[in-house]
Amino acid sequence: MANSVQQWLQIARQQLAQLVPPDEASIEAQILLMHVLNVNRAWLIAHATDSLAAISLNTVESLLQRRLQGEPVAHILGSREFFGLALKVTPDTLIPRPDTETLVEAALEKINGRMRVLDLGTGTGAIALAIAKHAPNCEVVAVDASAAALAVAAENAATLQLNNVQCVASHWFSALPASNKFDLIVSNPPYIESSDPHLQQGDLRFEPMTALASGVDGLQDIRQIVAQAPGYLNDGGWLMLEHGYNQADAVQQMLQAAGLQQIQTLQDLGGNPRVTLAQWQTPVTEQQ
After folding, report:
1. Is the dihedral of CA 196, 126, 63, 13 positive or negative?
2. Rounded CA gap, 129 and 104, in Å?
3. Can you spell out the DSSP letters for the chain?
4. CA 183 – CA 114 distance, rounded (Å)
5. Could you count the other beta carbons within 10 Å of the beta carbon of residue 177?
6. CA separation for the pair 262, 186 (Å, rounded)
7. CA distance readout (Å), 116 to 56, 167, 238
8. Averaged in consecutive runs of 10 residues, what is the pLDDT profile of the chain (288 residues)?
9. 261-267 β-sheet, strand order
């Protein structure tokens, strides 16, 4: 039985290393203990030889067992940090991931002044809220087909006091009037193939399938978004999509076929093609 902070972290790290890579195991052990003790990482280092009270030890052991059963850390803690924001996370939402910050960064680079932004399939609200926080003059509309997910996004917006975000129940564009135009449309839609074995592994087992898989080739939802987006973009507006590491070429071809221009793909933190963006120029015949 571990008596000190250091001993518990060492034992927990060894157990977690059977589930995740060693460096992640170390981080997860620290996160669980920091959560229970309500301290930061510096405190753990400074108090490495301190004894753990029985009540704290029992609590953190129960959390560790849940993690060893495969439950995601974000679900155990009920939150996840994304782009500097602490977001509530539930099993009704996709867990925000660092790779998606690439999409937020790309969006912020295009924002200039007061613009209207649409986030399709908002989940926890991660993308919409990060944009709203760093571009406070923008009006951000966050939509999701899941009422439960939308409630989480609205709660996160309220907690973060971001009043420039409106949460709307909609399956992609279905509840938005055609007259509702945006300068920027962003989305991290489902893009995993429905038969992908990874859906039955790791954290993905605990996340909503509707937020992960999209048809046989994983591109069903992206096709629908690309087909409809031009009708909701202002002249010169941008569409930005997160997608799978092996889907960039297919997404680029869709965007080109839909008449969008200035198409480019950005890499995520791991160097994988992750976000493809394109600009909509209203045809001259429509401008007249």
Report:
1. positive
2. 10
3. ---BHHHHHHHHHHHHTTTS-HHHHHHHHHHHHHHHHT--HHHHHHTTTPBPPHHHHHHHHHHHHHHHTT--HHHHHTEEEETTEEEE--TTSPPP-GGGHHHHHHHHHH--SS-EEEEES-TTTHHHHHHHHH-TTSEEEEEES-HHHHHHHHHHHHHTT-TTEEEEE-STTTTS-TT--EEEEEE----B-TT-GGGGSGGGGGS-GGGTB-SSSS-HHHHHHHHHGGGGEEEEEEEEEE--TT-HHHHHHHHHHTT-EEEEEEE-TTS-EEEEEEE----HHHH-
4. 10
5. 8
6. 16
7. 47, 14, 11
8. 87 94 93 95 95 93 94 93 95 90 97 95 96 97 95 98 97 93 94 57 59 63 94 97 92 96 95 96 68
9. 165-169, 139-144, 116-120, 182-187, 233-242, 273-279, 261-267
pTM to 2 decimal places: 0.87
How far is Cα 122 from Cα 52, in angstroms, rounded to an integer? 40
152 in Cβ contact with 141 (< 8 Å): no
The single-letter code of the amino acid at 50 is: D
